[in-house]
Amino acid sequence: MTAYGIFNFLHILVFAVIVGIELPALYALRMARGPAASDAARAMALRIKRCADATSAVMLILLLPLGVQLGNALGVWTLTSNAWLYATWGLGLGWLGMALAAELGAPSKWAQRIYKSECVLRIVIGLGNVYDAFSSFAGASMIQSNWLAAKVLLFGLILVISGWIRWQTKAVRFASFDAAAGTAADPQQLIDTIRRAQWGSHSILAMALIAAYLGTAKPW
Fold it and tell me: For residue range 180-212, what is the model confidence (pLDDT) as tens digits?
C-alpha cells in the first residue's frame, strides 16, 4: 500500500469513528434521562457520553493534518513549500498531545486549565478553517477546489461547535474532581447540561456525514 493509500484509509477511518461513536452515546443518554432512570443508569450514561465525546474530539484533531496531506497529494491544496505540511503536522500532533493530556490526565486544576485552553484553541483553529474556506470561494486561497473548500468550511464549523460543546460540558469531564472538592452537580444536573448541548452533537454528526459524502463524490 502506498503512502497516499495509508493516509486515505486513516482519513476514512477517522470519519467512521466520529460518526459511529456518537450514536451509542446518544442512545445511552436517551435511556438515562427519563424520570424513572436510576442513579446508576445516569452515571453509566455520563461515562459513555464522556468517553464518546473525548474519542470524537481526538479524532477531529487528526482530520487536520490528514486532510492537508491528502489535499496536497491530490493537487487541490497547493502548498508553497513542504514547510507548510510539516508545520501542519507539528501543529496537529502538538494539539493532539494537548487534548490527550486534558482527557487522560488525572482531574486537577492543571487538567482543567489545559482542557479550557484546548477548547479555545479548537475554536480558533475552526474559525481559521472557516476563513480559509471563504477565501477559497473568493479565489484567494491555497485550496484549489470548491468541494474541498466546502469540506474545510464544514470542518471549521464542526471544530467551533465541538469547542463550544466541550466548554459547556466541562463539568462532566471533571465531575469526580469537583465531587472531591464538594462542588459537584448530581448526575441528573449533568445530564441536563449535556441535553442543552445536544443540538450541537446532532449538527456535528450531520456535517460529518455531508463532509464524508463530499470527499467520496467530489461533485464540483
Answer: 444 455 666 666 666 776 777 788 888 988 888
* Cα distances (angstroms) measured from residue 6 to each of 3, 66, 70, 201: 5, 10, 10, 29
Residue 75 per-residue DSSP state: T
What is the rounded end-to-end Cα distance, in angstroms, of the chain? 28
CA–CA separation, 101 vs 168, rounded Å?
19
**Mean pLDDT computed over 139-161:** 89
d(CA 82, CA 125): 20
DSSP 8-state secondary structure symbol assigned to residue 78: -
Number of domains in the chain: 1
Q: ∠ CA 18-21-25 to the nearest 5 degrees? A: 135
Element (H, E) at 67: helix 39-74
pTM: 0.84
Range(s) of the domain holding residue 22:
3-217
Q: By C-alpha distance, which of 94, 160, 169 is closest to 122?
A: 160
